[in-house]
């Protein structure tokens, strides 16, 4: 079982990074200087799944599409400062619920705990911001998104509609 070490830093809860000790990977709040590297990781991950590597428009301006709205977005960085994964979330209106978005890990680095660490960080930030229910759209058809359908239940998510899962935080 991989050991995780939480590093506390002063400031807002969203600025607190986590470190995966074994791989030297740290989870940080989104920083614009990593945008292009993050986009490359997302497109590579889609390509590895056999999906057309199309860019999601929200990733072109994470600041406006997530952070300026009070939502969150996190990056996983390796020891060299290269992006190895990402995840974001956005609150659903004036509710205590939020949708997870763009959980991707660089194809050659999957199954090392990076995706789990990103998810844990996003869930922690959601809880700190009053979110009580996390939701995720898994995509259709299921065969194309098989990794998501296997990943989220391992973290306590359960189906509530076809292609959707949720978890009480």
Number of strand segments: 9
Order of neighbouring strands in the sheet with most strands: 1-2-3-4-5-6-7-9-8
Which blocks of ≥5 consecutive residues have pLDDT under 50?
1-13
CATH-assigned homologous superfamily: Gcn5-related N-acetyltransferase (GNAT)
- Provide mean pLDDT, rounded: 88
Query: What does the main sheet amount to?
Result: 9 strands, mixed
- Structure class: alpha+beta
Q: What is the helix/strand order? A: EEEHHEEEHEHEE
| CATH top level assignment | Alpha Beta
CA gyration radius, whole angstroms: 15 Å
**Outline:** globular
CATH architecture: 3-Layer(aba) Sandwich
Report the portion of residues in β strands: 25-35%
Structure notes:
The protein is an alpha+beta fold and 169 residues long. It has a single domain (4-168), classed as Gcn5-related N-acetyltransferase (GNAT) (Aminopeptidase), CATH 3.40.630. The protein has 4 helices and 9 strands; from the N terminus they run βββααβββαβαββ. The chain has helices at residues 35-48, 62-65, 114-128, 146-151, and strands spanning 4-6, 18-20, 25-29, 72-77, 83-91, 97-105, 133-137, 158-161, 164-168. It has a 9-stranded mixed β-sheet. Strand 4 (72-77) and strand 5 (83-91) form a beta hairpin. The chain is globular and about 35 Å long. The model is unreliable at 1-13 (pLDDT under 50).
